[in-house]
Amino acid sequence: MSHRFTALFTHLIFSTKDRFPHLDPGLGAECRAYIGGIVENVGGRRIAIGGVADHIHLLVDMPATLALSDFVRTIKSNSSKWIHENRSRPKFAWQKGYAAFSVSRSGVDSVVRYIDNQEKHHHRVSYQDEVRAFLKKHGIAGDERYMWE
Hints:
This protein is of the alpha+beta class. The chain has six helices and four strands; from the N terminus they run E-H-E-E-H-E-H-H-H-H. Helix 1 packs across helix 2. It is globular and about 45 Å long.
């Protein structure tokens, strides 16, 4: 086959540093839109982007030409730079790590609904409990000493 045909649906989750609520409704919406542009500029496709004041969820169809770590680094570094330069938030930073989970085509609609309902969801569940649940669901052991940096 001489062409690439891929469907690399990935659910990404990452937080602001120390879960500081930088992403208030105004900045949060602008930041999510900007991140969507980054995803598309590197050859990916945004499916859903949402979150609350202290973290973000993305469902993307990743480009086959980028490693996951490079993809996330590009999103975080470019969005952070944009926030610093255009929104005067000198203390803004993303946490060091991230969580990423593959999603089957049949699971895309469910993940989109989950991302779209973040505000309601986080009235009941903290970011930390949410990440713990995702790790457990996917059989991933996480060392809590380093998970929240």
